[in-house]
Amino acid sequence: MPLAHPAADVWTLLADVADAIPGAPAFIHGERTLSFAELLDGAARAAQGLADLGVGPGDRVALWLPNIPPYPILYFACARLGAIAVAVNTRFRAVEVADIVGRSGAKVLVCAPGFRRIDFLSILAGIDPDALDRLAAIVTVGETPLTVPPAIEHRRRVAFERLLSRPALAANHASAKAPCNIFTTSGTTSAPKFVVHRQGAIASHAQQVARTFGFTAPETSSLAILPLCGVFGFNQTLATLAAGKPSVLVESYEIEEIGRLIEQHRPTTLFGSDDMFARLLEIMPGRWPFRSVKWAGYAAFNASLEDLPERAQPRGLKLVGLYGMSEVQALYARQPLTLPVLQRKLGGGATTSPLAHVRVRDPDTGVLLGPGQPGALECAGPSLMVGYYGNPEATAQAMTDDGYVRTGDLAQLDGRGGFTFLSRMGDVLRLSGFLVNPLEIETHIQKVPGVAACQAIALPRPGGVRAIAFVILQPGAALDEAAVIAHCRQGLANYKVPVRVLAIDEFPRTPSPNGLKIQRNKLREMAEARLQS
Question: Which of these, 22, 151, 40, lies nearest to 94 by C-alpha position?
Fold first, then answer.
């Protein structure tokens, strides 16, 4: 049975499940069901097809695909070849795709030209020809438009179905040490780094998540809403597969379609962002529309939804805080399900693997801190990355000498053997010598009538570094800046009180595989411009 033995590599992870339950459904997409045996056979055939295009061990294959069956088929094909699957977000456009293809040195790029009115081939046509020249072929999934841009017309294009027509690849180059995944970080101030993981880390983490998160229960099924190009969606889906359970692939992020699929498939497992769950609560009918969902893992990106778990619980949606990042994989930690909602909703928790360890360090002195003391979070364990592809300097900066990753996050140990995530270190406000979590200021300001959302940043001023708050107002509301500042003086320490409160129509955001993230660097630039004028 699945999970009976530890899988040494990604291909073995799939092969063991397919041997144990060959006819069981692995993926459901629309009216199509793909069994584990069909997934294994398709991946072996696609591996031969990729080999025909010159792909071998260590080569990179860029997967620019939505959540559709060819994605896992090609991913496992790469694993059998010993090749590296490079995740490319379907939201990316010419500049971003050119950067990823160019810096990764991808030999093959896979896209779905007919997917949701995104003109993939025209986007490719806008890429620097030098980047495209490095590709041996472009593999197309689904229908190809009748007219192809001239810049793409003469390039080698191969239909995905042609890969599946090949015999199964005889050789198996999968191994625990073989690199298999490249995920891109979602930095907003510099080019994204390429996080490399090896097969042993991916396979063992999938099995450990399946055990710890209870995916082995007979009724388990996942709704794979989050994109497979990000670790959050990828790790959820691979852990479901490791448990021998089905995943429903959701290619659309349209909230009505997600709601329809929840009603149709009755999943036990949901993962997503706070924005997604807030919108689901709005559109799902009935008092208890999530009856099949045991608990839902969520990531908190929107400070205005701080009370979402409390609002979700009476309607049967038990939201649970998690922790993860590309460097340590998603689902690295989870809050205990038995905690009260006020603690359970916080990011962090106990590590998924018993071999993983966390510690918190004072960012100024380097001293290790005890429970309840905020500092820089460092993580170790079997799910860690190999490093950053083509960037040994960044790898050296991220890793400690004793094998911990410097996460760049502010956290504190919780005294129960776990930790609580507070914020990104880059978002932390250093005010009057104190580290201040911006959420503390934002939550307080959002209690002011008429304020719908708030973001706080720090900016050097003549009297020192001070907090600046941006607010989005509710329809019809007007900003009384003096009243908001007075409200802050009544409830916050003086050094936390913002010197200015500025109204804005919307926060600048950048897309990531897990949702839209607020660009605080843009807010700082806007604050400087406003204050100068």
Answer: 151
Structural domains in the chain plus CATH codes: 35-194 (3.40.50.12780), 429-532 (3.30.300.30)
- Local structure of 528: helix, strand or coil: helix
User: 241: how many CB neighbours lie within 10 A of its CB?
Assistant: 25
Distance CA 294, CA 223 (A): 13
What is the 8-class DSSP label of residue 299?
E
- Taking the C-alpha atoms of residue 39 and residue 243, their distance in angstroms, rounded to an integer, is 15
Q: How many residues does this entry show for the chain?
A: 533
* Concatenated DSSP letters of 74-121: HHHHHHHHT-EEEE--TT--HHHHHHHHHHHT-SEEEE-TTGGG--HH
- Residue 216 tokens read as 């082995």
The span from the CA of 2 to the CA of 24, in Å, is 12
Instruction: State both tokens at 25.
Output: 């459904």
Q: What is the pLDDT of residues 155-202, one digit of tens each?
A: 999 999 999 999 999 999 999 999 999 999 865 445 789 999 999 999
Query: How far apart are alpha carbons 44 and 76 in whole angstroms?
Result: 8
Neighbours of 297 (CB within 10 A): 20
What's the pLDDT tens digit per position in 206-264? Answer: 999 999 999 999 999 999 999 999 999 999 999 999 999 999 999 988 999 999 999 99
Name the residue type at position 292: S
Left, alpha or beta for 465 (phi > 0: left; psi -120 to 50: alpha)?
Answer: beta
For residue 219, which amino acid is it? E
Q: In which region does residue 82 sit, left (phi positive, over 0), alpha (psi from -120 to 50) or beta (all else)?
A: left
Nearest-angstrom CA–CA distance, 314 and 263: 18
What's the predicted TM-score (pTM) here?
A: 0.86
Ranges of H-type helices in 117-230: 120-125, 129-133, 150-153, 160-164, 199-212
Query: Does residue 522 sit in helix, strand or coil?
Result: helix
Residue found by looking up tokens 């608990």 in the block: 295
Distance between CA 450 and CA 473 in Å, rounded? 6
Residues 6+ apart with CB under 8 A from 467: 429, 431, 436, 438, 441, 456, 457, 458, 496, 497, 498, 499
Residue 349 φ/ψ region, left for φ over 0, alpha for ψ in the -120 to 50 degree band, beta for the rest: left
Closest by CA to 459, choosing from 363, 527, 358, 408, is 527
Closest CA to 335 of 300, 221, 343: 343
